[in-house]
Structure formats: C-alpha cells, structure tokens
Amino acid sequence: MTDPRLEKLANILVNYSTKVKPGDWVWISANVLALPLVNETVRQILRAGGQFNVLMDQDDLTEINLSESTVEQLQWISPIEKMLYENADVLIALRAASNTRSLGGVDPNKPRTRQQARRDLTQTYLRRSAEGSLRWVLSVYPCQAYSQEADMSLREYEDFVYGATFADQPDPVSLWQTMHDNQQRLVEWLKGKKEIIVRGPNVDLKLSVEGRTFVNDFGDKNMPGGEVFTGPVENSVNGWIKYTYPAIYSGREVEGIELEFKEGQVVSSKAQKNEEFLNSMLASDAGARYVGEFALGTNFGIQRFTKNILFDEKIGGSIHLALGSGYPETGSVNQSSIHWDMICDMRQDSEIRVDKELIYKDGKIVV
Predict the structure, then answer these.
(1) Beta bridge partners of 259
(2) Continuous H helices in the chain
(3) For the chain, which terminus, N or C, has the lower number of CB atoms within 10 Å?
(4) Residue 268 has pLDDT above 80, yes or no
(5) To 5 degrees, how large is the angle CA 39–CA 41–CA 43?
C-alpha cells in the first residue's frame, strides 16, 4: 500500500510547485531508489494532461563513470540531455542515494572536469529558469542512506521529510501559500536596498545588493522551500565567515570552512577536513571564488542539520552563501561550473543590518 504522504508529495510537486498543464513536456530526473515517488509523480503528470520522459541514475553508475572515463569521455555531452535542457517545459528532479559517500574515493579532478564540460548546460538551465520557459523543482525520496546521514531511523526520516514538505498535512498548498505571503512581505521591504552587513561570532561580512532582486523561495523550485535569497554585487563582498556546519559537495564532506573575501573574491580559505578538496573546487574556474547567492533560511519547521543541503539551507535562523554560479533572476552575472551552498548558524549573538537598519537578530526577522 502506497504511503498517502507520498501521493501528497507527488501532487505538490506537479500541481503546486511546477503547475503542470495539458501539453507540457515534463522531464523527470531521478535516482532509481526514488522509483516509488517517480511512479506517483508520473500518475499526477498524466492526470494534469502532461507528457513525460524519465531519466534514471544510480550511485554505482556515477562512480564507474567518473572512475573509468578518460578526460574526453568526461567532456562528452549527451545530445539527449542537451535537448531536454533546451526544450522541456518542466524538470522534476528527485534525489535519493544508496551511499552518500560513493564518490569519496574518486579523484576530485574528474568531477571538476565533468562540471566544467557541463557549464553551457548549467547556463542554459539558469537562463531558461530565469525567463520562465523552464519550470523546475527539486525534492527527495526518503531513503536509508539519507536517514543514516541524518542520524535517524528510516521511519523517523520519513516523518521529517513529509513534515518539512507539509505532505503530512490535510491542505499542504494553503500552508505553502501562507509561507509565500509571509516571506513576500520581507521581499517587498528589501526592494531598492543597497548594503547588507552581517555580524556574529562566526561572521563579519559587508556586501552590496544595489540593483539586485530578492527572490521568495516558497516551495516552487525547492520542496521544501523556506528561504529568501539574492545575488550580491560580484565585487562587493568583503570580510570573513566561518561556516558552522559541514559543506558537502560531490560526495565530499568539508568541515570547519573559513573564508576571507576581498572585493568579492575568496583570498584565503582553510578547512579542518578535506581542505585540499575545498581548494580544488575554488580553482574550478574564475567564478568559483565569487559569491553567487546570499540567503536567509526561514523554515523554522527545519531545526536540525541532516547533511542534505535541500533541507539544511532552509534551517530557520541560518544564512548561507553559495560560491559559484548565481541565479540570473536575482541580477547575478557570476558564472561558474559550481554552485556550492555553505551554511552558518545565526541564532546566537548575531545580527543583520540593511542600509544600517537592524532587520535580523539572533536568527529572527525583526522588521
């Protein structure tokens, strides 16, 4: 018997997040372990009148590909993927994993080579998303590997996922609409503002948002949603930050990251664990040392770190900065083969001022 919460999540993804309509071409990109959610999502797509294609991946195949491929093979772009990025109306990405560290033994230069080769695809995706011709949403299927990462049983993790997405509630859409309305008031207040100063025991940053747009993430592109973000002026970030949570990228966990910025660029970087990998990612390309995103986590239904960025970047009372590509809809022009979110807890002795006015104190909006 299918978990009714799974059916509700599929309904949210299709009919709320991406608003599939008759004739839409929907591309589902999923891990094979997410098949139960894929099935329910396809059911909802067909009921909405859409057409679908499913591309499935699997951890072992990804590891084999990166381990065995030559540089030329890593740089190959599938014409099928290229066509989907350029022409699909909707992308629904469903993540799951059998082993979250399956790429831990892979030479970090290999995923970097592959990411660099896919840069044009990334820019196509970002451009089409910004102009509205590609509607997309990312979510997860609760699986054993994710529950283990979060130090939960599978049943406990299922409850966490369905709770964070409101799929355990009678009317999830109304709850997401309420989040939208609350966050939109902050977005409206931030319009036209110029400078942000962030201070606390783990951060002292100044950045410009002049001419930039703040975006309300209310579950339309990430499920769960719960953040307000923008792309800072590329050469404006100055100061330092110590990230209070591990940052995970391509199966590598980097702990104790400390970054110093001057005129927007990372000029000093260190980490307590996997520092070499951090520096290799910073060397990916010219844009990798610049900030593509600055965001406030606003989902106070998420209060624990699970080592899954989809949830962790939304932790109520946190901020995150992403190194690399920015979202064009924010006004960001930074381009890179990476987009790496890193999270800092702001719930103690911390504040954010916008044009010198206090708007955020100890993890909470005060305007």
Answers:
(1) 241, 269
(2) 4-11, 35-47, 59-68, 71-74, 79-87, 109-117, 119-131, 144-149, 154-164, 172-190, 275-282, 309-312
(3) N
(4) yes
(5) 70
Q: Which residues pair with 319 in a beta bridge?
A: 296, 344
CB of 314 closer than 8 Å to CB of 226: yes
Residues 6 or more apart whose CB falls under 8 angstroms from that of 232 comprise 196, 207, 208, 209, 212, 264, 291, 294, 332
Q: What does each C-alpha distance from 208 to 111, 307, 336 come to in angstroms? A: 32, 30, 20
Phi-psi region of 23 (alpha: psi -120 to 50; beta: other; left: phi over 0): left
How far apart CA 8 and CA 33 sit, in angstroms, is 19
The per-residue pLDDT for range 281-306, each reduced to its tens digit, is: 999 999 999 999 999 999 988 989 99
Task: Give residue 183's identity as a one-letter amino acid code.
Answer: Q
Q: Evaluate whether 52 touches 28 at the Cβ level (below 8 Å).
A: yes
Please count the structural domains in the chain: 2
Spatial distance between the Cα atoms of 350 and 352, rounded to a whole number of angstroms: 7
For residue range 16-53, list pLDDT tens digits in order: 999 999 999 999 999 999 999 999 999 999 999 999 99
Domain that holds residue 196: 173-365
CATH of the domain at 152: 3.40.1830.10
Residue 332 phi, psi dihedral angles, 5° rounding: -65, 140
Model pTM score: 0.86
The answer on 221 and 154 residing in a single domain is no
